[in-house]
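Quick one, T. Sequence first:
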Amino acid sequence: MQITDAGQLLELNENEFVGELPKLTDSQINFKGKNNILICEEGVHLWNSRIDFNGENSVLYLSGNIHDYSVNIALHKNNVCFIGKNNFFNGRTTFVLSEAKNIILGDECFISYNVVFRTSDGHCIYHSSSKDRLNYAKSIYVGDHVWFGQNAMVFKGSKIGSGSTIGAGSVVSNKTVPSNATYAGAPLRCIHEDTFWTSHSVHGWGEAEIEKMSQADSDLFVYTADETTLDLEEIENRFNTYSSPDDVIFDITSHFLIGSKNRFAID
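Structure tokens:
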């Protein structure tokens, strides 16, 4: 079923919609499988977006956002995609979820043009002698307040802690990026440790603004793992054991929506 008018979400038969109807502008949502659940909080505006449920038993949770969603999301079978609050998509961001793996994106991330997230390579690679497969899919976890530069690519097995920065054109693949660090390049490498970024736009600044902002005066975007930090391995193990999308939704509402500042901190 192709959805181009939000009201059509109330007419689903083999799939389910929960929450507040989103606003759709030049956007479509396609249900090609069954037993999938789309959840939208109040304040979801899909602009120039496409969402495809290509298989069965997947959950997509779109949190409320003061910015427009500009996304291309493809879910297949037994996937969980959670997108937190008030993320800024500067151009359409692509999320491809395959092989029953998941993508979790925290709150208030800045995502520049042409950024891609993929849990799988899409095809199998085998060892010539043993014939063993070498490239199994893995989930992606991204914390709160993470900045992705233009054309960054985030691949399977990546864990990116809150407050970090991923430089333009970087390739993050099966890497763990600690909180409050700046990483860039292909291959990825650490540029600076103990950093944080703010959302001030510098494009129109002159000498006065540059001087005024030469030093920050807050620890608001400094994240440190503590007793409230979520165990990402434990989350992944729970997702792998659930037999119903409803179990996934209960987990999301119990853990992601009531988390503390340091919920996605990585030391």
